[in-house]
Known about the structure:
Elements: E1 6-8, E2 11-13, E3 17-19, H1 28-36, E4 41-43, E5 47-48, H2 49-53, H3 57-61, E6 72-77, H4 81-94, E7 99-104, H5 109-112, H6 124-137, E8 142-147, H7 155-165, E9 170-173, H8 188-196, E10 201-204, H9 210-220, E11 224-227, H10 236-247, H11 256-274, H12 278-290, H13 296-303, H14 309-323
Parallel strand pairs: 3-4, 3-11, 4-6, 5-6, 6-7, 7-8, 8-9, 9-10, 10-11
Antiparallel strand pairs: 1-2
Helix pairs in contact: 4-6, 6-7, 7-8, 9-10, 11-12, 11-14, 12-13
The site of flavin mononucleotide has 21 residues, from loops.
Amino acid sequence: MILNKWAIGSVQLSNPLVLAPMAGVTDTFFRRLVKGFGCALVYTEMISDKGLIFANSKTKELLAGPEEERPRAVQLFGSSPDTLVEAARLVEQTGQADLIDLNFGCPTHKIVRNGAGAALLRDPAAAAEIVRQVVAAVSLPVTAKIRLGWDEDRSAEIALRLEDAGVAAIAVHGRTREQFYSGQAHLEPIARISQLVSVPVIGNGDIRSPQDAKRMLTQTGCQGIMVGRAFLGNPWLAEEILTYLQTGDFLPQPSGRERLALARRHLFQVAECRGEVGIKQMRKHLGWYVRGLPGGAKLREQINKLETCAQVETALAGYEKKYLPT
Ligand SMILES: Cc1cc2nc3c(=O)[nH]c(=O)nc-3n(C[C@H](O)[C@H](O)[C@H](O)COP(=O)(O)O)c2cc1C
């Protein structure tokens, strides 16, 4: 299979692989790691429109990062066209975004009770109006990430309305809001949307292996494939997917030592920039890196109680000596 080059508006992409936005996960460090394994496009986590407008410095940090991780989609959430327009203009002014993505898919209560995220799937006309106004306000390409609908599949109608309103691409997670993460992501609606709209469609949901990635591409005709949870603790999957798509070959799985080496590199990059407070943010990542390794659960428990980089390093070295002798 030849890896298709494609484009979202003016943004050229070298392969179909996209890192999904994940709150609390896809910060600049994680984005760079996954990018390093070949992912063509990375998303920030969702950023509150009001957080940006009120110049919350922590919020601004969410969209910053070095050139090496670009192209970068900055994802915004909100419920009103006015604040989303203002936030989109601010994002554009920072020069940190190549794409502005609108979140119409987040299922969590905290978000939907304010009329944002997946709540907008109940009112496709309102979602389309947001897109129309944001597209008119900025010159960057504007994309949207949706689920299939609120409690039933209305994805075809939603996608057509969003296309009409000017989106440059649509990422589709093949579940309704009501499904949250249960069951399987549905590919048929993604295939239908791919046929209906002329902008690129990015298929998302349950891609955990190279074969899943190929299935998403071939069964739906989508141009982009977006991976979220399967990258947690396993950014190597990006390279595995790209290799398999190109050659049909499976790369060997990273060894325990390779996992720990990457965990350390990730930890030190975070600590170098954020200091020891970075440890708290890294605990979950460290847990994901050692998931499935012998003694990994115990190591995770131990790491969760540690406060400094040096302590984590000692724990990792002790673990290596006991479980991963050379
Ligand atoms: C921890 C976590 C945080 C997420 N945060 C966001 C987010 O900020 N914006 C968004 O559009 N989707 C978010 N999602 C949904 C993912 O982008 C993706 O649509 C979903 O996980 C399905 O893809 P997957 O099966 O490859 O994980 C999040 C998912 C997870 C697991």
